[in-house]
Amino acid sequence: MSEAQLKWGRTGTRVGFQLLTYLLLSLCAVIFIFPFLWMLSGSLKPAGQIMRFPPVILPELSTLSFNSYARLFQAVPFARWLLNSAIVSISWVCGALLVNSMAGYALSRLRFRGRDMVLMIFIMTLMIPFQIVMIPAFIITNWLRWVDTYLALIIPWIPNAFSIYFLRQYFLTIPRELEEAAILDGLNKMQIFYRIITPLAIPAIVTIGIMTFMWAWDDFLWALIVTRSKELWVVQLGIANFFGQYMNAWDVVMAGATIAALPTYLLFLLLQRYYVQGVALSGMKS
């Protein structure tokens, strides 16, 4: 077999492998996006068509309606729940980025006694289920008299071992020569962190921001434990209670679920470039 034939054979194999990869990825994409499309479709058609068999995936143009969204905001204080979720999620993200980035920088750059032991303890906490931490966290929150306040929803979970470890790994990829040059220019550690390290770590910081926002926005169990009044319900807790009262109004329930899912989808679509960079580089060490 000639060299040209071998080259064409390798090219054909590579193209075939790429086509198979794209086909499998497309199939996975359809599987993962189908529940969201079904939910969106259900929110735009009458409740009687949602449970029809065989199922109607796309609503008929003649029955297409946004009445379910109007009924949702009329039946419950859904706007208030969205506002609560926004306040909790944004505050949670800001606090987490500040605290966890500083902790990750300290564990990656500063030299102090017991640094490796502290890092090991952080990693060990990742193996503890939330259900075990939940009870002592509630006892402390109740002792501080934070129950049924925004503080209970935000403060306890700002420090996060995964975020600290993730950012530490990314900080290790930043060359130390940049810090040495900054020290020669007269910058202290805090100035180096905010003016040198932070701008270079934008992909990792955005990645942790997206993950933290998703955790905060989708939180249900902790909000259920520490809130008493409906005025402090977050959107996930509100939808769960709304579903219990309006089980037959599937179109309204799906309208609420669609609105609740949109912020995380939009945030990821807008920042996915940084997310991919952060995940790809966080495990590399210079």
Q: Could you describe the 3D structure shown?
A:
This protein is mainly α and 286 residues long. It is built from 14 helices and no strands. α3 packs across α14, α9 packs across α10 and α13 packs antiparallel against α14.
Q: Could you estimate the helical fraction of the residues in percent?
A: over 70%
Q: What is the oligomer described by this structure?
A: single chain
Number of strands: 0
The helix-strand sequence is HHHHHHHHHHHHHH
Number of domains: 2
User: How would you describe the shape?
Assistant: globular
**Which architecture of the largest domain does the CATH hierarchy give at level 2?**
Orthogonal Bundle
Say which CATH homologous superfamily of the largest domain is assigned: MetI-like
Task: Output the structural class.
Answer: mainly alpha
